[in-house]
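Thread: Modeling a multi-component assembly for a lab meeting

Hi all, long-time lurker, first post. My supervisor asked me to bring a structural picture of a complex we are working on to next week's group meeting, and I have zero experience with this. I have the sequence lines for every component (1109 residues in total). Could someone generate the structure of the whole assembly? Inputs are pasted exactly as I received them:
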Amino acid sequence: MAEQILLSVQDLHTHFELRRGAFGRAGFVRAVDGVSFSVRHGEAIAVVGESGCGKSTLARTILGLYRPTKGAVFFEGRSLDGDLRWYRPQVGYIQQDPYGALPPFMNVHRILEEPLLINRVGSKAEREQQIREVLEEVKLTPVEDFLHKFPHQLSGGQQQRLVIARAMILRPKFIVADEPVSMLDASVRVEILELLRGLQRSYNLSVIYITHDLSTVRYFAERIFVMYAGKLIEKAPVHELLKNPLHPYTQALLAAIPDPDPQNAVTFKKIPPGEPPSLVNPPSGCRFHPRCPAVIAGLCDKEVPPEFEPSAGHSVECWLYR
Amino acid sequence: MRERSEVRNQAILSQGGARPLLRVEDLKLYFRTSAGVVQAVDGISFVLGRNQALAVLGESGCGKTSLARAVLRLLPRNVHTYSGRVELDGVDIMPWSEERFRREVRWTRISLVAQAAMNSLNPVLRVGDQIAEPLIIHQGMDKRNAWARAREVAQIVGIPTDFLQRYAFELSGGMRQRAVIAMALVTNPDLIILDEPTSALDVLTQANIMNALKGIKREFQKSFFLITHDIATSSELADHVAIMYAGQLVEWGTAEEFYPNPLHPYSQKLMASVPRLREERTLDFIAGRPPSLINPPPGCRFAARCPSRFAQCDHEPPLIEMPGGRLVKCWLYK
Amino acid sequence: MNAIRSGVRQLRQYPSALVGLGIIVALIALAVLAVVILPYSEAIRLWRGGEDIWQESPRYAQPAWLNLFAVKKLPETIVVSTKGAFVKASPTETAVHRVNAAKTRADKTVSISLAFDYRYDDFPTELTLLLEAKYAELLPYVALRWRTPDGREISLGERKLKANERYNISQDTRLERRLGQPPEVGLFAAAGRQSPLHGRYELRLEGALFEENSDVDAKLIVYGKVYGLAGTDHKRRDLMVALLWGAPVALAFGFIVAVGTSLTTLIIAAIGAWYGRWIDGLIQRITEVNIILPTLPILIIVGTFYSRSIWVMMVVITLLSIFTAGIKVYRAIFLQIKESPYIEAARAYGASNLRIIIRYMAPRIIPILVPGFVTLIPGLVFLEASLGFLGLGDPVLPTWGKVLNDASNNGALYKGYYYWVLSPSVLLMFTALGFSLLGFALDRIFNPRLREL
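Re: Modeling a multi-component assembly
Sure thing. I ran the full set together rather than chain by chain. Output:
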């Protein structure tokens, strides 16, 4: 089991200092606040949460773009600290806004060559070969038509394919995809998700798929982590979680997502009141307790719930399952 | 040509009952750009009854926002063609002067929740002032009464009264969107146009806003014209659904009939690309891109991407009336 | 890169830009022409040369082409010389006649006739006779006579000749007293007449030579009132030298400083925005201090106490212009670019800081940099001219600013030498106009938000 683990995250905290003036410190934004999990080889994991819950910070910390305040990330047993040049070619990054993710003044060829040049991969001919291969993999074909195009000459879907190609070109073992389809039209989303899924399967990639949209998750991931206010409050296999959500927040999240159904127009949804808490001064105890319909007074508002595992592989941070 | 467009308009225009709230006939809005004339809205007709919600669905760039702007006559400077008939309560308001339109229609009868309006709230006005502003500008109400009304509306959309004293940047995205809806509601219009009202919001907030809109529709008998690319969310409000493709209406029907059983191949593909949370089904997608609106192809505009294309698709199909009053612009149903 | 290409294509839609571009191309052509027809060393020799180089051109002469529009034709300079009969002014016929007769081996006579046709409606400015004598010990002796077209003969005296003799006829006060008016007038007009007689004038030189190898050469210069394409200044120098060479100097100055400033500003702004913290703070503080430093006084101090070399000035101006408002503008844009997802992606695949700054951030500024750079040039050209005007121009180079400085020092406008001020000013204005027209059009092309719908 242990050798199957590709990435492991242990008690990860990423805090940002809020400055006030030159010397004052207003506090910390606890964007990621005590997160532990591990990712196996070839496993796709979805991290689901609302905006501001810290999921993008988690992604960037795993990518080594932010340094953790506490805790650590291990990739193949090696800790991510100090010089990360060894780690860069191992991990690909797919971002939300495909147009913003591409330098507008570089053409497709140049965009794909940059990671190779920076990581000193191959000779010129080998690089050329790799660029063509990866373009074919993401189905930007015929390759010749695309090599000299600039990002603004591509459609949103094609731009996102190019972003995926760039993430894949160093042949990483691990991909972090932060909302890869949320800015695309519905008709294109599926196409991109299927492409990602296909690449993940054929290269046995491990993927962390960050999203706010639970409805796309079942088509992509094996496990879901639900994130709320800097913490992973529930972790379960996809089907298990969709069928049997344990945390009251997960339950609310699932209830809030509509399927196209005319019945929706005549029913009102039961949605917990309020807004996600501030990450500067999160509530004491369970961070969901001020909105929780099942709050246990004297417990949920005082003690931070530990991780319970009511059934194998399905864990939840909620006092209801103590 | 003219004759056929009469025919296809009659079919849809007979839907709204005796005196619908809004009746739009052969509405066209073309823009002049450096690349050519963009036919953003190309002869659209529809009817919207009182206390009804019509959802206009389509991919980005299909002309749905332009349709909203055309109805509310919020036109950019590079307009090439703006024609058709827009009847409000049986009166054609197209010939009205800009001044009369501004005074008697915009915000008085029809108001707009523009796309991403929550991000363009005035940062130096208090939220309450902002909500009261349409009353002061469009109806010349004094500030005290306007604020009283703003408080009333804030309650309806679910903004705590003490939030009215705050500034937009102090509010969360959901609260700001509620404020924008309150601005649209404050003048008590008959019709509210919602352009992607929830697309930038989180799932829970989105559900909350949809709940609020449903409540408003039920309690105050408002009509809604909902423009969105999010099909699942549209089902939360819509009584009727119109599918737009490349500047044209390709399907029109009631929500009960449309969502379970779309007719047009484009609508079917679109529905098949919507991921479902509660049922297991394989997803489909539409290969290719919508045609350019500068020189749209003759014939059916979806033909190039259509799986059921046949010879007749080289000619433009009419809007064909199906049993039960559904309309579909596709030769398959002739 | 494609932005630049499409920018050029769009340029055609702006007539003002095409006019600007036309002016710039013309200026560049002028600069190239200057360097080709008048090589640097030659230009410097001419410009720094004194009376010996410019002895055949008049002082304060107007451009010759003005005669085309004038009813009263102003005289050009006429040179009649025994050493190869050459003619400075084409429409004037001159004749040189010389008879050397030997009475004995050591006793000879020489008779030289320097004749020219004078057909102008105004008097010359000066008359000078240059005499060159060859002898061992005994000086040649000559008598000079002036003959006018109406047959009058005026004696210009007799004299013993040394090796090089310069007889400034127009400053001969005795002659002036005799004629009752300045010689350059009296020798050309009958008493009481306001305009010179047209016709053939002749200076006759009759001389006695006392040695076997002794000989005399003479050159008569009748200084006119017009000269060349650009006229002359107080030192008889052809202003064309300075006007021609002013173009490459001004353009090179403007271009080099603009490139140096723009690129350095760009890189420094990017470094500040990227690294932030104290580096950014330091750059900001330097900029704030520099913005309130007065440029011109600093340049005057440098020019007065250190060096007026154009290179020194260029370096000082570049240094002073790096930390200016541009840095603040670029920094603001870079701070935005820094947050772009594509920068984050570049970090994720391991791009170094330097690579991100140069390859990923700097190119985004080009649409702002290029128009800014083009509009920067006229200011610099003016600054260079101002330095020249203030007497802080490069001590060697002929520049437009220096022409203006000379004109000002010699009261050109009071004395009516308007051409002296006008021609460099017009060139300066055209330079500014050309670059401004192009720069503003580029700004509209690269920053479409400025464009009207």
